[in-house]
Amino acid sequence: MVERRRFGNLLPHAILWLGIAVVVFPVYLAVVGSTHDAATVANGMRLTPGAYTLENYYRTLFEGASRTASQPVATMLFNSFVVAMAIAVGKIAISIISAFAIVYFRFPFRMTAFWVIFVTLMLPVEVRIYPTYKIVSDLGLLDTYTGLTLPLIASATATLLFRQFFMTIPDELVEASKIDGAGPIRFFKDTVLPLARTNIAALFVILFIYGWNQYLWPLLITTRDDMQTIVIGIKKMMVVTDGFTEWQLAMATAVLAMLPPVLVVVLMQRLFVKGLVETEK
Amino acid sequence: MQKRSIFGGRLLPYALLAPQLAVTLVFFYWPASQAVWQSFLLEDAFGLGSDFVWFENYQALLSQPDYYQSAVVTLLFSLAVALLSLGVALLLASQADKSLRGATTYRTLLIWPYAVAPAVAGVLWIFIFQPSLGIIGQALRRNGVDWNPLLNAHHAMLLIVLAASWKQISYNFLFFLAGLQSIPKSVIEAAAIDGARPARRFWTIVFPLLSPTIFFLIVVNIVYVFFETLGIIDTMTGGGPGKATQTLVYKAFADGRLGGDLGGSAAQSVILMIIVIALTAVQFRYVERRVTY
To answer: Using one digit for the tens of pLDDT, what is the confidence trace for A196-233?
Structure first.
């Protein structure tokens, strides 16, 4: 502290708590909204929780909002989980081995391969929506987990990250492994993977959130209700004419959709921050 | 940069690269080149055949008042979100930087909105501002404001700006806090000894030293508004009322799906690709500069 303040740090704390209140408010309201019955919500929200928590969550999870004839949210949660895991694990797996190839081998077209991957950094899904959709449908992958995840698995970011990390592994380790008679696969398994553990975990946190929160791609690629992810499911609940939206169930769905990624961020905060800072560089 | 010590092996490196290259070629290069090719084609009304029409799709696009409106909407939307979320995040981060005790607690309490999906963030904010049952929407109407985001373009814009900024504050906060914590305290103390008050110190020392972070965050925020807010717009306004909240990406999405104008949508995608490449280039130049600092 540079100077002595008359009221200590009261003002900074007050500003921070005000900021937190504003940030938390929408979520608090959603939680409260999910504990009332339809009539209470429709007549104007209250700020205190109601008594329909169990009923609402039970209906949301296992029956689905009846009037909108949608799927039970438990199915959607399962789909979201599969998609997020497949994207995170798939991305990490294919990028770590391709980065390993680029760093630890010399072969014709090595730099070409690197640039082919690197350029895709500049092409988010949003700018090539319909052609990609067409390819996936030509391959017969609509409404499949493969179609939902495979096109999102290629990522220049993860490859670059691992390449950067491999460059920091001292050469002596490679030489020592070679003297011990280990080949590249053995070296990868026994030396590289253990060293990269934290990087993999940090990347996993970021990619899990990325996969869970996908919107545009699952929206296009799924036509069957039972293949929907929860983020798409909530959008569908809102569409069925405004007057008939069952807000208390929509809010329960919103809470369930937020819970897993938010828990991941809060519980693995250190890894999350590390991943975020690294993927942006 | 190259490693000195490497492995031999003829086929292994190709085998290791194969999965990533296959996915990249099939799902990136093929569709991207299709987008470019399709932007030169015009499909007939029944989708049976298509003609090569050179730049007709681009001409048609650039003569649409709608397209310019979307460009203006995107610009205003990005500016508003960047200003609001950067401003609030900087304010909060500078306060958290001051109160040394509890800084990590505050960080935990402020970073989680990053994990909320844009579409879900949209739903949360509609619930608050819904004219008939939202808690603030109702209060506004009771106090004589004719609040109606479904009909009033300004209200709709305000809504998506709020939701988009809310989600982005956590990210900006995290980077501002890191930036602030890396400014040496001795510089600030030296200024204080010279008699500079806190406000003066902020503008003449902290702010300039923070400028690389600010610049970086502006680029990131613009990219975010361009591409990731599609979920927010789709759940909150659907681009309406009229086309008042239709951004460039949303228009490309809506024209291709609802309108079925694939050539026009492809032309828009190509223009967007050029914009992304430009933004990425700017970001990279900046990263290089920071490294040589």
So the answer is: 998 899 889 989 999 999 888 888 888 887 888 888 88
A138 Cβ contact partners less than 8 Å away, ≥ 6 residues apart = none
Q: How far apart are CA A74 and CA A65, in angstroms?
A: 12
Residues B20, A154: C-beta atoms closer than 8 Å: yes
Q: Alpha-carbon distance B177 to B179, whole Å? A: 5
* Mean pLDDT of all residues belonging to chain A: 83
The residue count of chain A comes to 281
Rounded to two decimals, the ipTM of the complex is: 0.86
Distance of alpha carbon A76 from alpha carbon A244, whole angstroms: 21
Using CA atoms, how far apart are residues A198 and A182, in angstroms rounded to an integer? 24
User: Per residue in B50-82, pLDDT tens?
Assistant: 667 677 778 777 778 888 888 899 999 999 999
- H helix runs in chain A, sequence order: 10-33, 38-42, 53-58, 73-104, 110-119, 129-138, 145-153, 156-167, 171-179, 184-187, 193-195, 197-212, 216-221, 230-239, 247-267, 269-279
Residue that the structure tokens 């900087």 belong to: B90
Whether the pLDDT of residue B293 is over 50: the answer is no
Is residue B11 in some structural domain?
Answer: no
Closest-CA residue of B relative to A12 is B95
Is residue B56 assigned to a domain? no
The domain total for chain B is: 1
B119 vs B116: CA distance, rounded Å = 8
- Say if CB B41 and CB B50 are below 8 A apart: yes
For residue B227, give every residue at least 6 positions away whose Cβ sits within 8 Å of its Cβ, in sequence order, or none: A124, A126, B249, B276
Lowest mean pLDDT across A26-40, A231-245, B113-127, B151-165 = A231-245
Task: Quote the domain boundaries for residue B97.
Answer: 66-292
Q: Determine the Cα–Cα distance for residues B206 and B94; give it in Å rounded to an integer.
A: 10
Encoded amino acid at B264, one letter: G
Query: For A45-56, how does the pLDDT look when each residue is reduced to its tens digit (9 = 90+)?
Result: 677 777 777 777
Shortest alpha-carbon distance between residue A198 and chain B (Å): 20
C-alpha span between A64 and A236 (Å, rounded): 12
SS3 A139: coil
Record: contact A44-B133, CB cut-off 8 A: yes
Q: Which of A4, A13, A23 to mutate to test the interface with B (most CBs of B within 10 A)?
A: A23
Report the percentage of chain B scoring pLDDT > 70: 89
Give me the CATH number covering residue B154.
Answer: 1.10.3720.10
| Partner residue opposite B7 with nearest CB, options A184, A219, A254 | A184
| Range of weakest confidence among A57-66, A209-218, B74-83, B282-291 | B282-291
Query: At how many degrees (to 10) do helices B153-181 and B103-111 cross?
Result: 150
Cβ contacts of B121 on chain A, cutoff 8 Å: 26
Does the pLDDT value for residue A142 go beyond 80?
yes
- List, in order of start, the domains of chain A with CATH numbers: 82-230+267-279 (1.10.3720.10)
The contacts of residue B98 (CB under 8 Å, 6+ apart) are: A1, A9, A12
* A280's tokens: 């942006």
Between chain A and chain B, the number of residue pairs with CB atoms below 8 A apart is: 289
Contacts of A261 in chain B (CB under 8 A): 115-117
